[in-house]
C-alpha cells in the first residue's frame, strides 16, 4: 500500500512590476471595476504618489467612543497599490474604546507609543476564546486576519498607537455598526432573537446608527 498526500499553498501574488500606482478612475476618468486598482501610466508617476504627511497630528477623539483612526492605505498613498501593506494612527481619549471590529483582508500589528491599552481578539467558533493583554508604551500585539478585536484606553490620560496591516486596503467591519446600522437594516425581530432581548431594546440600539 502506498500512502500519498497533497498540500496546497496559497498567498497574495507578488507584483509583476516595480510598482503599480493606483489610478482609481482609470483611463479617460472611467471607473474600472477590478479586484484592486488599475495602474497609473508610469510616465505620470510623481513623488507624491508615495508620500503622506499627518501621522504626527493628534486625532479628534471627541466622539461617543473616544477614539479616532487616521488611516494611511492605498486611498491616501496610491503608490501602496499591490504592495500589501498599510498603516494607521490610533488616538484614544481617557477610557476611550476602538469598538470590536475586524479587518477582512489583513493581519494587524499594533505598537503603543503613548499611554496604556487593553487589547484583545476573539477566536472563531466554537471556542470563541478571548486572547487579551494589557499594553503600555513600547509594547506591541498581533491581531490575526479577520478575527474580531478591540482596543481600550485603561488610563486617565490619552493614548496613541500605530498599526501596521498586511494589505494596502485592509477594510474594517465594526461589529455593532454592521449588525445594527446596516443599510438596509436587519429585521429587528431577527436581532431580538439573536441577542435574546426584546424589540424595544433592538429599536433603541438601531436608532443610534
Short description:
By secondary structure, the chain is mostly beta strands. Among the domains are: about 65-170, Jelly Rolls; about 175-209, no CATH class.
Folded structure, characterized:
It is globular, with a radius of gyration of 20 Å. The strands form two sheets. Strands 1-2-9-4-7 form a five-stranded antiparallel beta sheet, with no helix packed on it. A five-stranded antiparallel beta sheet has the order 6-5-8-3-10. The protein is built from three helices and ten strands; from the N terminus they run ββββββββββααα. Among the domains are: 107 residues, Jelly Rolls (Sandwich), CATH 2.60.120; 36 residues, no CATH class. With 209 residues, the chain is mostly beta strands. Pfam families: Cupin_1.
Key descriptive features of the protein:
10 strands, 11% helix, five-stranded antiparallel beta sheet, 209 residues
List the helices and strands and how they pair.
Blueprint: E1 67-72, E2 86-92, E3 97-102, E4 108-114, E5 116-122, E6 130-136, E7 140-143, E8 149-153, E9 159-165, E10 173-174, H1 175-180, H2 188-195, H3 199-207
Antiparallel strand pairs: 1-2, 2-9, 3-8, 3-10, 4-7, 4-9, 5-6, 5-8
Organism: Handroanthus impetiginosus
GO molecular function: manganese ion binding
GO cellular component, one term: apoplast
Amino acid at each position: 500500500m502506498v500512502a500519498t498526500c497533497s498540500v496546497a499553498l496559497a498567498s497574495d501574488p507578488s507584483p509583476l512590476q516595480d510598482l503599480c500606482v493606483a489610478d482609481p478612475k482609470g483611463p479617460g476618468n472611467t471607473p474600472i471595476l477590478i479586484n484592486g486598482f488599475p495602474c497609473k501610466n508610469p510616465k505620470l508617476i510623481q513623488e507624491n504618489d508615495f508620500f503622506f504627511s499627518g501621522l504626527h497630528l493628534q486625532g479628534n477623539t471627541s466622539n461617543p467612543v473616544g477614539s479616532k483612526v487616521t488611516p494611511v492605505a492605498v486611498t491616501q498613498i496610491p503608490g501602496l497599490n499591490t504592495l500589501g501593506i498599510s498603516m494607521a494612527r490610533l488616538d484614544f481619549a481617557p477610557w476611550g474604546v476602538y469598538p470590536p471590529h475586524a479587518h477582512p483582508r489583513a493581519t494587524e500589528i499594533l505598537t503603543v507609543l503613548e499611554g496604556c491599552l487593553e487589547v484583545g481578539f476573539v477566536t472563531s467558533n466554537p471556542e470563541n476564546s478571548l486572547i487579551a493583554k494589557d499594553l503600555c508604551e513600547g509594547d506591541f500585539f498581533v491581531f490575526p486576519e479577520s478575527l474580531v478585536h478591540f482596543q481600550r484606553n485603561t488610563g486617565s490620560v490619552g493614548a496613541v498607537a500605530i498599526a501596521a496591516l498586511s494589505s494596502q486596503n485592509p477594510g474594517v467591519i465594526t461589529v455593532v455598526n454592521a449588525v445594527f446600522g446596516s443599510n438596509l437594516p436587519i429585521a429587528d425581530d431577527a436581532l431580538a432573537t439573536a441577542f435574546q432581548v426584546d424589540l424595544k431594546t433592538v429599536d433603541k440600539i438601531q436608532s443610534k446608527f
